[in-house]
Amino acid sequence: MTTIYITSFGWDQPAGAPAANLTFDLRTHFRDPHKRPEFRYLTARDQVVVDTVLSTPGIRPLVASIAGAVAAYASGPVAADITVAVGCVGGRHRAPSVAMLLAGMLTELGYEVAVDHRDIDLPVLTR
């Protein structure tokens, strides 16, 4: 069975983007909770952050599209695991929130899913 590996990460973290079959960049088109002082030191482990990110116009359709792309990869003739990378600036807010929503959608579709929030516990980036 194909396993879907989802990694959330921060583009501006030292490690940069991980290797992946599909990589999604949330930096430009979706508002950053980091810019709100009351959210800066929170992460996607805080429900208010997740709610804020997932209420952003365009996020849910984007995640549904990513799930569709994963399904297309999985239906190919080679049975291989699929890696999806989702990045925002620091990897603490948008990327892990989207990664969790994507994981839930893919699990509901019957895929085995593993999620890694690579940068969620790194220090807050100063900008």
From TrEMBL:
Domain RapZ C-terminal: 3-121
A UniProt-annotated Pfam family: PapZ_C
PANTHER family tied to this protein: RNASE ADAPTER PROTEIN RAPZ (PTHR30448)
Official protein name in the record: ATPase
